[in-house]
């Protein structure tokens, strides 16, 4: 039996630049850390189950309420490391 994996989608929700990135086949043991890290730069973070397509987690923050603590580049590098073990 294959282990359930997840897709993590992040979006900047900005006009310039509008960044949207998808990390596929994320293992469950990496998911919590990836979600927390993504929210440090991206206003929208969504997780879906690869097998069923079910939305597991969906967070959107309005620009007036969002205060990033890392840059997009920093978070993308960290997510590559967390999700796939490489930068």
Describe this structure in words.
The chain is of the alpha+beta class and 87 residues long. The longest helix has 13 residues. Helix 1 packs antiparallel against helix 2. Helix content is 28%, strand content 29%. Strands 2-1-3-4 form a four-stranded antiparallel β-sheet. The N and C termini lie far apart (29 Å). It is globular, with a radius of gyration of 13 Å. Strand 3 and strand 4 form a beta hairpin.
Give keywords.
87 residues, alpha+beta, four-stranded antiparallel sheet, 2 helices, 4 strands, 28% helix, 29% strand, globular
Question: What is shown here, in short?
Answer:
28% of the residues lie in helices and 29% in strands. It is of the alpha+beta class. Helix 1 (28-38) packs antiparallel against helix 2 (72-84).
Number of contiguous helices = 2
DSSP strand content = 25-35%
The separation of the N and C termini measures 29 Å
Report helical residue fraction: 25-40%
Largest sheet: 4 strands, antiparallel
Q: Which structural class matches the secondary elements?
A: alpha+beta
Q: Care to count the β-strands? A: 4
Order of helices and strands: EEHEEH
Overall pLDDT score = 94
In the sheet with the most strands, the strands line up as 2-1-3-4
Shape: globular
Write the layout of secondary structure elements.
Elements: E1 6-11, E2 20-26, H1 28-38, E3 44-49, E4 55-60, H2 72-84
Antiparallel strand pairs: 1-2, 1-3, 3-4
Helix pairs in contact: 1-2
């Amino acid at each position: 039996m294959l282990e359930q994996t997840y897709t993590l989608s992040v979006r900047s929700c900005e006009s310039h630049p509008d960044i949207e990135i998808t990390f596929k086949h994320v293992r469950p043991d990496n998911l919590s850390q990836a979600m927390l890290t993504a929210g440090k730069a991206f206003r929208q973070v969504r997780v879906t189950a690869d097998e069923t397509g079910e939305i597991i987690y969906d967070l959107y923050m309005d620009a007036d309420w969002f205060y990033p603590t890392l840059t997009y580049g920093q978070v993308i590098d960290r997510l590559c490391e967390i999700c796939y073990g490489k930068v």
